[in-house]
Amino acid sequence: MKKLTIPLIGLSAAMLFMAPFIILAAPFESTMGLVQKVFYFHFPSAILYMTAAVICGINSARVLFWRNKNADAWAVAAAELGFLFGAITLVTGPLWARKAWGVWWVWDVRLTASLVLWMIFGAYLLLRQYGGPGSDRLAAGMALFGMANVPFIYVSVNVWRTLHPMTSVVPTLPASFGIPLWFSFAAFAMLFTALLQLRATLEHQRLRVEELYLAEDEA
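The structure assignment produced for this chain is given below.
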């Protein structure tokens, strides 16, 4: 996996450079026009936002129930990326909504649950930074709540009446819209994977340095 990190970064950078040209060539949506093209950035960041919550939650469960220290590094890495991609999602969404729906924000189920997840990520990171001894386990418990929120966010548009389209819309997109969307998603996903690996590796090294300091103090 580590050997693939640099190629992934290079490939994702090349694809992200090409993405605006591919998106520009995509047709305009008949009712929303140019602003619809925000979708090609909003959708990938939203999916990876929820993916980060699942990765953080699974590894936090490994920390809580199996005391796996290596999993903790992956949880921290996923939380930081979740906070980043959540911010992208919550910024691009209102930019699109203002033109498409006439409002910046509505307190519907999906938007509210997405904001709650972002706040959970923020609280997780604050706990890890300033919570003191035992904060890692408290933050891990919080990450489980964040992961539990993900299915709720995903299915909310199918269960409740919201301004968001249903989840069945994306799989039925015509190729002229689908190809730019999945190209952008692939570029974002590769960047996400590379950053996750790099950040987890950095956290592993930080934990190793801490262990060496503790061993030196005990000696």
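Interim note for the steering committee: The chain has six helices and no strands. Residues 2-218 form one domain.
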